[in-house]
Automatic annotation (TrEMBL):
The gene is ddl. Signal peptide: none annotated. GO terms for cellular component: cytosol. This is D-alanine--D-alanine ligase. Mg(2+) 2 binds at residues 267, 269. Pathway: Cell wall biogenesis; peptidoglycan biosynthesis. Its cofactor is Mg(2+); Mn(2+). It comes from the Bacteria. It is found in: Cytoplasm. Residues 104-300 form the ATP-grasp domain. It comes from Candidatus Dactylopiibacterium carminicum. The lineage of its organism: Bacteria, Pseudomonadati, Pseudomonadota, Betaproteobacteria, Rhodocyclales.
Amino acid sequence: MEQNFGKVAVLMGGSSSERQISLNSGNAVLSALRSAGVDAHAFDPAEQSVWQLREQGFARAFIALHGRFGEDGTLQGALQALGIPYTGSGVMASALSMDKWRAKLVWLAAGVPTPKYRLLTPGIDFTAVMEALGLPLIIKPAREGSSIGVSKVETPAEFGAAYEQAARCDALVIAEEFVAGQEMTAGVLGDQTLPLVRIEMSPGNAYDYENKYFTDKAHYHCPAGVSSELEEAVQRDALRAFQVLGCRGWGRADVIVRADGSYSFLEMNTAPGMTDHSLVPMAARAAGMSFAQLCLRILEQAALD
């Protein structure tokens, strides 16, 4: 199969706030594909125009870009125009999944469980939001990833600063009810879900940008250590959450599981991390798939909308 891929661009880096993580992901993918005999090459859209992909003879693109201009439909639209098949979701699903507010609207309409929320706009009555959602609550930019700009608000005095921090990242900001429980992720590959990964933080630490990528404060468990019935229910709804957004190829749903076994989906990632800390590769290993095999499976599904 490998020899049929042609010349493959591994798109990495880019200009988003997640550039460094994308470089880590991209280099890991590049090494894995080359080890499998694929004619793969690094391509950084921040350093050369994507229009050069056609000029340089690339037949497929593996998207290892995270965040804006890589995961939000922008790049997918360019590749669509160039006629170069690419990994992951198409233009609409990428844009929709990146926008946590609009993704919630789709999920709520489809009956996918997700935390209650309020859209925050300049001049909004913070008190009314806190009364509706309770404290603590979460404030986040609607179109950022990797927990960038996210704050947990525990007292009314913290609300204003948290909103301003999120608004510096994105004009679209949401407040979301805080859901206490175990944080898990459900990877999706094609039309299948991978084993759940449970995330356990060292006491007193949050699962934020720093701890996701640069410390050992986060501990990952796969198998997740939940009942088979609960795992199957979360996997089933994760696949539904993926499909109703129009996603394809692969992705990762983030979910909180409460003590009573109920759960709520937080977001859908359409170009998840592929670093040594990353959760989809971990879940794939638990399913008996090596990192190189995972990369090949993702590349095999490269397509145009």
